[in-house]
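Input.
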Amino acid sequence: MLGAVFERFVEKSPISVMVRASLERVLGADRLDLWYERTAQKQYTRDLLFSSVYDLMNQVVFCVQPSVRAAYQAHQNDVGTSLVSVSNKLNGLETHTAAELVRYSAREFAPLITHMGGERAPWLAGYRVKIVDGNCLEASEHRMKELRAVTGRALPGISLVVYEPALGVVTDVFPCENGHAQERSLFGAVLDTVETGDLWIADRNFCTRAFLCEIDKRGAFCVTREHRGLPFEIVTPLRSYGRTSTGHVAQQRVCVVDAHGHKHLFRRLRIKLNEATRDGATMLHILTNVPRHVSAQQVAELYRKRWTLEICQPQYCHLGIFCWSHVA
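Output.
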């Protein structure tokens, strides 16, 4: 139906054809504009389509163009409106819309990845592993140079990002325009998405009594580096559980009491590292509520793999995050 040229592409490079078809299906102009009409709460389309803004931002995100202005100048005739209109559209983009774009794309791509056999081996069989972490946009500031040294300068917006290693994609994001806000102010929104059987892996900033106990209460699981401010009671003494590739592991049981007086039992791992971390630590403590049949070595390895999200941070500045964080 599409001719001999298309058939030649299918024969010689089927993967690229499949990827292009998937992108067109999920992120094509018609689909995006229809999605935007259903999703946006305050903004509306007058002369400038959301898909046009998406195309411009894509060129910046993937380094085809150095700025929105350059992307606009290269495609001015296709956009059909002024640069001021484009800037106004970006400045008015709601965090709700940006976050929903990430969720929409993940929701649409997940079954395609599964259908094409693109899922990766699970980190822990029987669990839906999710890594949650805060963003780090300071190194990519796009504010006026003259304001960067001012004490009262505006800060980039913050966000919490959820990455699912089995799919290899960011599946959720929780943005906040207030760059002075604490990441912990977004924990409530994250906890609302926790489901039974989830396994959440996080750094020590997420090691709060409320966060850990709520995950345990919801029938989900966690692997989190211990924060020194977490109150707990030691239930059993430390016992050695051998070595991992990074150090020696010992384990004990501790009890954390939530705000309602309910007790929650966790395993507390102590890892004496062979080499210090980048912040100079030679010993790590990790808290988890995964069942005992998951060995201490497995738990330690799960936390070590958390760096997967750190590595992909530049990649998860996907259009949804990029749009609001660079204009907030």
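The two ends are 47 Å apart (CA to CA).
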